[in-house]
Specification:
Shape of chain B: globular
CATH architecture of the largest domain in chain A: Sandwich
Largest sheet of chain B: none
Radius of gyration of chain B: 13 Å
Largest sheet of chain A: 5 strands, mixed
Protein name (chain B): CX6B1 oxidase
CATH topology of the largest domain in chain A: Immunoglobulin-like
Keywords (chain B): Disulfide bond, Mitochondrion
Largest interface: A-B, 24 and 23 residues
Number of helices of chain A: 3
Order of helices and strands of chain B: HHHHH
Number of domains of chain A: 2
Distance between the termini of chain B: 15 Å
Strand content of chain A: 25-35%
Oligomer: heterodimer
CATH superfamily of the largest domain in chain A: Cupredoxins -  blue copper proteins
Organism (chain B): Polyodon spathula
Number of helices of chain B: 5
Distance between the termini of chain A: 30 Å
Subcellular location (chain B): Mitochondrion
Pfam family, one (chain B): COX6B
Helix content of chain B: 55-70%
Helix content of chain A: 25-40%
Number of strands of chain B: 0
CATH class of the largest domain in chain A: Mainly Beta
């Protein structure tokens, strides 16, 4: 999850997010190198007493500073397209979960076998127990079996919302009347937090998302318990 | 009903990838399966044959369609109708 003074992404919990993280590192390194070079040149130009009034053109340097940026762009584009197609691969999900956005909570529906559905409200700050995270915890978490491909269908019941979990590399708009599909696999068990990512009214900041990845047996026990409760 | 169909239904995990709807927007996928289920039911009931083949569409639209779009009652109804038809064709 996010922590104070954080600069980079959260630790990746899915293979796609790992790829995105590495691509971001690669691209940012290129950006730092170019920025350092440019800054160096600016400082060097500004701090010299030498002047040169007689160079009018130079074919060689023009070729270099045309070809080199093109090569750099290709070095960025190839991994980028690779990840784009990776994210678009056909996967065979084991489970479908529907995440419906409301003002101001999420509801989850697991209807592959039985009709399991529940609401997920944020726990108010005054009701938190020590160790829980402010504005991130919910009363019911979206529990999923770990290391299984999951399909999530995101929609909304009233206004636009967006379902986002940064650790899984997911953000999907929740549009009323439309069913948006996304998929993920959790590489490891854990609890992953996210927040509504589309302005949706007064309590937009107070409708978080919590995904809990557990082994399959735990998931089966949890779903039986939830069915009994409802 | 064929053995393949029975096995397919018994091994049902979730709605499989449908090449007719390869993209992000799955609204039409839900709608199509919902429509196909009701048309299948109507056709097979009119014919007086076993309606279990329609169960596939039922499972798929139940997996994909939000409950508020379809209604719990509608899903329960469909399940009950299917079971009643099964019993009728067996007797």
């Amino acid at each position: 999850m996010a922590h104070p003074s954080q600069l980079g992404f959260q630790d990746a919990a899915s293979p796609v997010m790992e790829e995105l993280l590495h691509f971001h590192d690669h691209t940012l390194m290129i950006v730092f190198l170019i920025s350092t070079l440019v800054l160096y040149i600016i400082v060097a130009m500004v701090s010299t007493k030498l002047t040169n009034k007689y160079v009018l053109d130079s074919q060689e340097i023009e070729i270099v500073w045309t070809v080199l940026p093109a090569v750099i762009l290709i070095l960025i584009a190839l991994p980028s397209l690779r990840i784009l197609y990776l994210m678009d691969e056909i996967n065979d999900p084991h489970l479908t979960i529907k995440a419906m956005g409301h003002q101001w909570y999420w509801s989850y529906e697991y209807t592959d076998y039985e009709n399991l559905g529940f609401d997920s409200y944020m726990i108010p700050t005054q009701d938190l127990t020590p160790g829980q995270f402010r504005l991130l915890e919910t009363d019911h978490r979206m529990v999923v079996p770990m290391e299984s491909p999951i399909r999530v269908l995101v929609s909304a019941e009233d206004v636009l919302h967006a379902w986002a979990v940064p650790a899984l590399g997911i953000k999907m708009d929740a549009v009323p009347g439309r069913l948006n599909q996304t998929a993920f696999i959790t590489s490891r068990p854990g609890v992953y937090y996210g927040q509504c990512s589309e302005i949706c009214g007064a309590n937009h900041s107070f409708m978080p998302i919590v995904v809990e990845a557990v082994p399959l047996e735990h998931f089966e026990n949890w779903s039986s318990l939830m069915l009994e409760e409802s | 009903m064929s053995q393949d169909m029975k096995e397919k239904l018994e091994n049902y995990r979730t709605a499989p990838f449908d090449a007719r709807f390869p993209n992000q927007n799955q609204t039409r996928n839900c709608w199509q399966n919902y429509l196909d289920f009701h048309r299948c039911q109507k056709a097979l009931i009119a014919k007086g044959t076993d309606v279990t083949p329609c169960d596939w569409y039922l499972r798929v639209y139940k997996s994909l369609c939000p409950v508020s779009w379809v209604g719990y009652l509608c899903i329960l109804c469909s399940l009950m109708i299917n079971r009643k038809q099964d019993q009728q064709t067996q007797t």
